[in-house]
Design brief:
The protein is α/β, with parallel strands linked by helices. It has a single domain, classed as Alpha/Beta hydrolase fold, catalytic domain (Rossmann fold, 3-Layer(aba) Sandwich), CATH 3.40.50. Helix content is 35%, strand content 17%. It is built from twelve helices and eleven strands. The strands form two sheets. An eight-stranded mixed β-sheet has the order 1-2-4-3-5-6-10-11, sandwiched between helices. Helix 1 runs parallel beside helix 12 and helix 5 packs across helix 10. The radius of gyration is 18 Å and the shape is globular. The N terminus is likely disordered.
C-alpha cells in the first residue's frame, strides 16, 4: 500500500527540537504530530497546520517564535513530511471509496490530530492556526462534519488563505479553474529526485513564489520536505502525484457551499494576500475576500504586497497574528 520510501524514518522537525507522536489518521494512515520542546507547558495551546507540499518543519521560524509563550503543536498532513504517503493509485477505485487525498480525508485527519492534542494538554482550548491546505481542512471539518468538530475543545482560529474553490456563479470561478488546472499540470512534471538539499535550495531561491523566503528559511523548508533515499540522493516527501491529487481534490466547491454552516464564524480570523498582486497572483488569493464574506462575523485581514506564501515572507507578523488568538486567555 505504501510508497517504498516511506519505510525510511523521516521527520520534518528534528528530535532535538520537538517530541514526535504517531497519530492514527483517517483510513489507518499514521500521521506525525510534533510538540515543540521549547514551548511553554501549561501555556495556551496552539496547533499549527501547514500548506500543501510543505510540512510542519517548514514553519520553524514561526513555530519557535510562538513557543516563547505557548504550548506549540504542529503536524505533517497525510502525504507530507514524516506522515504516511501512499501513492494516490494505491487504493483500488470503487463505488463509495473516497480518494486518499480527498478533502474529507484531510478534515478527519485534523479531528484525529486535535483529539490527540486535547489528551496531551487537557483542560485547555486548542487555538488552531493554519496555512492554505490545513486551513481549508479545518473549515471543511467545521462546516461539513459538525458533530466531529463540536466534540473538540476549540479556541480561536487564524486561517491564512484557505483554498476554498468557488462555484461557477462567482466572479472568481474562471480564474480559479484555469489556474488550478495549470498548477496541477506543472506539479505533475516536477522533479522529484535531487542530489542534495543545497541543490534544491539553489534552484528555488528567488524564483516565483519562493522569492518570499530568505535563503536560511528556504533551507529550513527544504530540510522538512526532502527525504533521504538509500542511494544517498533525496526525494520530495510529498510526491508530484500526491500533490497533484490534493490540488484536484480541493478543486470543487462543496466546502464553499457548506461554509455558512461553520459554527463559530466570530472566532475566525481569515488572512488573505494582496488581491491586486497582478496577473501572477495565486487563485487562492483571488477568492479570499469572497470566501470570508460567507462567514458573517469573521475578522478579515489583507496583507498588502504579500502573496499566498505570506507566512514564509513575514513569520514575525504571522506569529503576532496567531498570538492574538490567545492574548486574553
Amino acid at each position: 500500500m505504501h510508497d517504498a520510501s516511506a519505510s525510511i524514518p523521516f521527520r520534518s522537525i528534528a528530535a532535538a527540537v520537538a517530541e514526535a507522536i504517531a497519530v492514527p489518521g483517517d483510513g489507518g494512515l499514521t500521521l506525525r504530530l510534533y510538540r515543540l520542546r521549547a514551548g511553554r507547558r501549561g501555556g495556551p495551546v496552539v496547533l499549527w497546520g501547514h500548506c500543501g507540499s510543505s510540512a510542519a518543519g517548514s514553519y520553524l521560524p514561526l513555530l519557535t517564535r510562538l513557543a516563547a509563550d505557548a504550548d506549540v503543536f504542529a503536524f505533517d498532513a497525510r502525504g507530507h513530511g514524516g506522515s504516511d504517503a501512499p501513492q494516490p493509485s494505491s487504493l483500488p477505485p470503487g463505488d463509495g471509496v473516497e480518494p486518499l487525498y480527498a478533502p474529507n480525508r484531510f478534515a478527519r485527519d485534523v479531528a484525529a490530530i486535535a483529539r490527540t492534542v486535547a489528551a496531551l494538554a487537557p483542560g485547555r482550548p486548542i487555538h488552531y492556526a493554519a496555512h492554505s491546505l490545513n486551513a481549508a481542512a479545518l473549515l471543511r471539518l467545521g462546516a461539513c462534519m459538525p458533530e466531529d468538530f463540536a466534540a473538540l475543545p476549540w479556541g480561536n482560529f487564524a486561517l491564512f488563505e484557505p483554498p476554498l474553490f468557488p462555484p461557477p456563479q462567482t466572479a472568481s470561478y474562471a480564474e480559479a479553474r484555469e489556474k488550478n488546472r495549470m498548477l496541477i499540470a506543472r506539479t505533475l512534471v516536477r522533479r522529484r529526485i535531487w542530489a542534495g538539499p543545497d541543490m534544491l535550495v539553489d534552484y528555488l531561491f528567488g524564483r516565483g513564489i519562493f522569492a518570499a523566503f530568505s535563503r536560511e528559511d528556504l533551507r529550513t523548508h527544504i530540510a522538512a520536505t526532502l527525504r533521504p533515499r538509500p542511494d544517498g540522493t533525496f526525494e520530495l516527501a510529498c510526491s508530484p502525484e500526491i500533490e497533484a491529487a490534493m490540488y484536484a481534490g480541493f478543486g470543487e466547491d462543496s466546502t464553499w457551499r457548506c461554509l455558512p454552516r461553520f459554527p463559530y464564524p466570530d472566532r475566525v480570523h481569515m488572512i488573505g494576500g494582496d488581491p491586486d498582486a497582478g496577473a501572477d497572483r495565486d487563485w487562492v488569493t483571488a477568492i479570499v475576500l469572497e470566501a470570508a464574506a460567507r462567514l458573517p462575523g469573521a475578522r478579515i485581514s489583507v496583507w498588502r504586497d504579500h502573496g499566498h506564501f505570506m507566512v514564509f515572507g513575514d513569520p514575525a507578523r504571522a506569529a503576532d497574528t496567531v498570538r492574538a488568538l490567545y492574548a486574553d486567555s
